[in-house]
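Researcher: Quick sanity check before group meeting.
Model: Go ahead. Protein one:
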Amino acid sequence: MCRITGFWDFNYNNSYALEETVVKMRDTLEYGGPDSLGVYIDNNCPLALGHRRLSILDLSTAGHQPMIWEDWVIVYNGEVFNFKNVRKILEQEGHVFQSETDTEVIIHSFQAWGMDMVHHFRGFFAFAIFNKVTQTLTLCRDRVGVKPLFWYLKDGLFMFASELKAFHQHPKFDKSIDTNAVSLFLQQGYIHYPHCIFKYAHKLAAGSFMQINSNQNIKNEKYWDIQNVYKNSSVSKQKEEELVEELECILTESFELRMISDVPVGAFLSGGIDSSLVTALLQKKQGRQLKTFTIGFHEEEYNEAKHAQAVAKHLNTEHHELYCSEKDFEKVIPLLPEMYDEPFGDSSSIPTYLVSKMAREKVTVSLSADGGDEIFGGYTKYEITQNFYPKVQKMPSILRSIIGGFSSKINPVWLEKNSSKIPFLRNYKNISNKFPKLINALEAETQLDFFNISSTYMSQKKLKKLFPYFCDRYKNSHDIQANRLISYLGMVDIDTYLEGDIMTKVDRATMSVALEGREPFLDHKIIEFSMRLGDEFKIKGKETKYLLRKILYKSVPKELIERPKQGFSIPVQKWLLSSLKENLLHMKDDFHFIQTFELDKNELNIIIDNFIAQKGYINPHFIWFLYTLHQWYLRWIKN
């Protein structure tokens, strides 16, 4: 696991030093690669590549990057977990290797198979390979977008990097803001590919290659696309027992692949279905105690540590937990704009950072169970879209308006406090956040619209008063197939939320403490299997992730797992109304901030003032989006 960067200046005029510049770009990423460093300069192009290494496989100097072999130079971030099998194939074709690294396997694979090489790989990765003879630079990102890769092109300057902060070190970097990215951020709190907060920067699409040559010709190509996986799949006719058996084999293989390492490996454990399943299957196969890690909260409504501890005790892991107070959380808030160098509004980044920091004291690699919800139907919003939208669709528009108007007057906070007394709300958590989204979704015209709107934190009508531009969250490129709605919604989330939010959160938090986070559920074989499942194998009645539960309950008693889905939540509203209140007041009077993002000052004032006065209901997560946007601006634009 590493951090990479580089640039190719087609209009270079000696106005700055190539090596000094790439070194500055590279060393902004030092925390993600503290073990070694390197650069490659080609003065004839001119082109520069930089690399920071976190040593995981082959800890010797043989793994140093940039790695040069014959006509190729590579800088690489990630892991190809099946590299030994790929290496055997290459050796049979006459390739000779000098190290035990997957980096060397990638560069040989590229020489042997070109861009078809990626179909041999199982893992996550982002890399750049330069061919010195053809003067062609190739960038590649893994299928799901676990590893980040940004690129930039303006006025003959092409750059790439694992994180945006590297670009700021180049003297020709243009920091103009992209309005589409701002729209996406205000809707959902993150910016998914290919969009980027900067106008001339982009995220390389998940599952794609990009090539640029000395004539500045650019070629983009998708080699794996979750939309096509959905489109080309059909519902399996296998019996439940057969599906459970096949899935358990695929999961076990994927999870065990993620244990390949020359350094200690552990796992995050929340006590939920996904992390418990990862832990159970690995503990069963490893023959030794797996190190597991959990963050605990003193506030009961946020605390899952006791559930994780019960699962860890049952599975006999070497369990570590750290209880944090609000003061511990608040100490992390000033770190966020540096850690997340693009606007990022997921407040669970705070506990993710804290659990990563704790794990790094014991291991260099930790497995995370992200992706299980998207792949196997774990989110409440899937169930709601499946069951509630058909009822909404049958309502006359006037009835929708009446229900929406009446429901909007109900205080969601009161509703959450009294949910135990309301039969159809008893099994749901975080109702104050979900209820307003559901009311906004009454205006939806299609099932996808309903899903998208119910995933946003402010109604489109109100949002347009604050920010006049609109960018679609997701365009419907395929029809929803019969008995595959849950897979369709999961496909949408894999292509947007998983890449833009969850993977961003985990990657930046783990790499900020030099910890490699691995995602065993995100093996493409698991995803492709899941797309063949009918809806009843993902959500059966009120039981989400049905097949995963069938496998998990072979190893863990049902009573240790069964509880309403909780999530990784923190008291955002409390902070915004107390310790962060002055920041909100400063934000609404920051003229240059308002001008930079083209916000309506009057509407911003109304939103902030009403939130502070607790006049009506304004989703605190949306206020957190605004707060983090302003903090990002202060760090990366104003300075």
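Researcher: Fine. The other one?
Model: Protein two, sequence then structure:
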Amino acid sequence: MKPISLMRSVVTVGGWTLLSRGAGFARDMMMAAYLGAGPVADAFNVAFSLPNMFRRFFAEGAFNMAFVPMFAKKLEGGEDAQSFARDAFNGLAAILIVFSIIGTFAMPWLVWAMASGFAGDARFELAVTFGQITFSYILFISLVALLSGVLNAHGKFTEAGFVPVLLNLIFIAAMALAINLGWDMGTTLAWTTPITGIAQLGFTWVAAHRLGFRFTPRWPRITPDLKRLAMIAGPAVLAGGVVQINLLVGRQVASYTEGAVSWLVYADRLYQLPLGVVGIAIGTVLLPDLSRRLRAGDSQGGRDSFNRGTEFALALTVPCAVALVVMAVPLVRVLYERGAFGAMDSQSTAVALAIYGAGLPAFVLHKVLQPLFYAREDSKSPFRYAVWSMVLNAAFAVGLMPVMGFAAAALATSVAGWVMVWQLWRGSRTMGDEARLDDRSRRRLPRIVAAALIMGVALYLGEWVLGAALSEQYWRFFALAGLIAWGGLAYFVSGTAIGAFSLSEFRNLRRRRG
């Protein structure tokens, strides 16, 4: 895969992720209007985060980081990739069926572990009830993640990219039905969760079937390849578990302030937009590409892919991070403040969003640097780094809680993210040339930062000029859109002028996409 082809694939994945995040915003705006940041919202957000936390633990982060390189190398080498994928599918399904049953019965303990601050009030019982309904989602979405890995390794990024869009569309339809038919909104959202998982699994199953892959459920076979997968996935699962412990610490800190869990969730949704569009897209495409290049001995091609991926990621992420810090208050007010979501909720969510924004480039760089390790089937190093980040995260979150309250959780996440980047970068210094920045990247990256800072000044001035319009009921969406367009123009013009990027690259990318 040539660098421009790599970028084209990233744009494809990022485009679908952008569409998904757009639908997700519509979903979150409806949830904020109907539930606000009250007890039902807190309870559902904790219940929904449980299967998603374990999903990242089992599938998207850990298992897939081990599965995708092995599967891609088997494709490159002409080996029996289909049997390997089928055995992995059945093995993962068997583990998750047992885990889903245990988790459903253990829900009171899981809720307490996630949000002990709920104990003694109505949020606890609601979270347990919602959690018992939603927890089976982990089975469906983890199998979806494996099937998506198969599709991505074949370059079928569109099919895999539609999966999260489907989730948000089903949630929006369910909330519309709940309003029109008078259903309880919290219960509706809880039951919608496993329904979306079944729909997503059905869609990816059919897409894989069209590729010629047959995933027939049967008793799992313990093959040498599956044992090797387990050996590689083990440290990756532990590393994924460390990341989830960081999230758990944040939820615990937030659970002692009513509404804080929801404030963090709504802020998380906003910074996840650029993270998903850029970071996850880069990681999704870069991992199988680097794995194939290592198998083929193409060191120079691997270096080009890594460098162009790094440039592309930071060129889009750094200005987003600056914008989230500078524009946190108007973003939250315009997008969320209506119905049950009040001014205090907006202010608190904006604080968390600005802190998350400062850590956004770090979260994206994780997605760029981790494939360097996983493509080499090295999952032990990221685990060691994650443990150190976990210790730092817990120290910041708990230690600063008496001073900063719920905002300590957001700060701890961002600080730990940057420490993780430093460790990944330092660890990659022992690798070959493909892990090194080339002259073009060294020249461009500081200019990208400079252009983003110029854009930040322009946004600050634009927010001052549009301050009244951003508070008007009917004009605020237009004012926010104008402010974003003004910032984007300032970044594009200044970045082109100082050589952070060039017009020809965008034209070439658009032409090749066509």
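Researcher: One line on it for the slide.
Model: Residues 439-514 form one domain.
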